[in-house]
Amino acid sequence: MLEVLHSLANQSTPLNHGVIFLFNGAEENVLQASHGFITQHPWAKQVRAFINLEAAGVGGKEVVFQTGPENPWLVQAYVHAAKHPFASVVGQEVFQSGVIPSDTDFRIFRDFGNIPGIDLAFIENGFIYHTKYDTANRILTDSIQRAGDNILAVLKYLAMSEKLADSSEYRHGNMVFFDLLGVIVVAYPARVGTILNYMVATATFLYLAKKASMPGHGGGRYVRDLACATGVALLSWFVTLLSVLIVALLVTLLGRSMFWYNHFYASVCLYGAAATGKMILIHTLAKNLYYGVSEWKLGDLYFDVSLLLWCCSLVWLTQHGLCSAYAPMLMVAFPLATRLLLAKEFKHRALACPLHDV
């Protein structure tokens, strides 16, 4: 924050709006400092937006996990200005659901000041956070530089924005936002996402219905095989989850429930191996149900099962108004589009190269 302040103070171009730097403490004692500022300080009434800097770890990429509420222009500001974007609406909805027992100054400014903002935090190496090992020498300079680049760019963008003068005018609806490999951020209104989600779901159900009605698939036989394969997939998920829970219980009984926290690959080897092994076992045993069926047809069937399950998840999340529905939408849209394009290409090649009897 001091470096950002120094940079802003020494730039030649004046800002259109003032910037307040709030250094506070008492966060762990029911967020008293931020509450005191937003309810008692005379400057509080002049604040139109805020950027809240948090940490649940040491280093790594700072993730935008809360925005708004209902101020899509803030997300657009981050999209346009951030040099190293890293954001996801999934984090916002998970955090605001109460599943994670934590709180930030974001809620204080939002609820007591009715001010929209952006909440970002470091989340890597969380096993050090709030322990005796949480020292300054463990803070990675690359992480500080990256965060500084993003915050300075977004802050300049906001301070020069005309929308900041009366942000209430641009308060309409939520945004779906997510980054692509930390390169760019995709953002669009939630209402557009709802339309897009239902379009993808409709296309998927039409694809499956058309496939069931094709003469070569036997109609009812295809539906029966699809239902059976769906049951196998759900069973494999259940057994996999049960196996992971059993492993977690054993680790807890040994008094080492959190040993994996600072060893990422240990968790992959321990829980990932158990999950993968049970998944392979269930599908290997289930393969006997399709004796005589070619592996190509079996793979095609389970591709349809994957589409069906992701599509059901997509519809459920969309009906509940969750912006996180973009995730299953991508898991449905791109595989389905790829399948249709490949089928069209192979069909054209088959027509271009007819078989000749000898």
UniProtKB/TrEMBL annotation:
Protein name per its UniProtKB record: Endoplasmic reticulum metallopeptidase 1
Topology within the bilayer: Multi-pass membrane protein
Cofactor(s) the protein needs: Zn(2+)
Subcellular location: Endoplasmic reticulum membrane
Coiled-coil residue windows: none
Lineage top rank: taxon: Eukaryota
Family: Belongs to the peptidase M28 family.
GO BP terms in the entry: proteolysis
Molecular function via GO: metal ion binding; metalloexopeptidase activity
Domain Endoplasmic reticulum metallopeptidase 1/1-A TM, first and last residues per copy: 222-350
TM region(s), chain numbering: 180-208, 229-254, 260-281, 301-319, 325-342
Domain Peptidase M28: 1-154
Keyword presence, Hydrolase: yes
Presence of the UniProt keyword Membrane in the record: yes
Classification via Pfam families: ERMP1-TM, Peptidase_M28
InterPro entries: ERMP1_1-A_TM (IPR053974), Fxna-like_M28_dom (IPR048024), M28_fam (IPR045175), Peptidase_M28 (IPR007484)
Keywords per UniProt: Endoplasmic reticulum, Glycoprotein, Hydrolase, Membrane, Metal-binding, Metalloprotease, Protease, Transmembrane, Transmembrane helix, Zinc
GO CC aspect terms: endoplasmic reticulum membrane
